[in-house]
Amino acid sequence: MKTSKKASVAIVGGSGFESLTGATQLVRVGTPYGIPSAIQIGEIAGRKVAFLARHGSGHKTPPHRVNFRANIFALYKLGVRRVFATNAVGGISECLEPGDLVVPHDFIDFTKTRRATFYDDAPVTHVDMSQPYCPEIRSALIEAANSVEEKAWGTSVLACTEGPRYETPAEVKMLRVLGCDIVGMTGVPEVVLARELEMCYASLCYVSNKAAGLQEHQTVHELTEIAAKKKPAIKQVLKEAIVSLPKKRSCTCAHALEDARLR
To answer: What's the confidence (pLDDT) of residue 217?
Structure first.
């Protein structure tokens, strides 16, 4: 693979964010896990940045059919070691309002059918998830939000559900009892797969609506409307966070496999 198509940082999210990098190259990467979404390569402040639309071009792939393993492995092959994700979520905590930005620090996985690991065979590998999201990227996102005067909640537990349907009021009540603050359909297994490849990963979520039972009904129109309104702010936060990242990683994400394998 040509050096010009390498990138150390990636943004994974919905369509529209590719303009942030001024993407000039379109890259197709083969993986042992199938065909990933197309990846665009551009630059932010002189740093090569890859952009991957999680749901594919035109948002055609529903959340339960996203090939998370192919997407993350393709980024890894390109040299990416730091991933900034964006995710639309529903607000479970009553203090959250549509349009709020959230940087989760933990998650609970309620998905059912997704291939959630690269390690189906020997050596048996148990990756540590005591700190699921990279502290360096989380700090960069929170500080960047503050610098552009955007309110961002710095601690939050994300519940990831299978989709593509929305959750029921009873399910949301259960999630609240379990300590979840936000709920979405795309955060897991993406974060786990990144850790299994010793990649840094954190998410900048935006609340698109209050979860079921906290408002009368939920519509896709509401999600897209909030996304359109928040996109400029999210782009600015991502740009500031990427610019502020030190070039060398000093977190433990890069050593996640050191004591994870049975020998």
So the answer is: 65
Q: What is the pTM of this model?
A: 0.94
- Name the maximum alpha-carbon separation found in the chain: 54
Phi, psi of 54 (to 5 degrees): -55, -40
| Domain-embedded: residue 262 | no
- The kind and range of the H/E element at 42 are strand 39-44
**What's residue 18's pLDDT?**
72
Structural domain count, the chain = 1
Whether residue 36 has a cis bond before it, omega within 30° of 0: no
Q: Is residue 260 part of a domain?
A: no
Length of the chain, in residues:
263
Burial (CB count within 10 angstroms: exposed 0-12, middle 13-18, buried 19+), residue 254: middle
Element of type H or E holding 226: helix 220-244
Please check whether residue 200 is in contact with residue 82, taking contact to mean a CB–CB distance below 8 angstroms: yes
* pLDDT tens-digit series, residues 123-157: 999 999 999 999 999 999 999 999 998 889 999 99
Domain of residue 215 covers 3-255
Instruction: Please answer whether residues 209 and 223 qualify as being in contact, where contact means their C-beta atoms are separated by less than 8 angstroms.
Output: yes
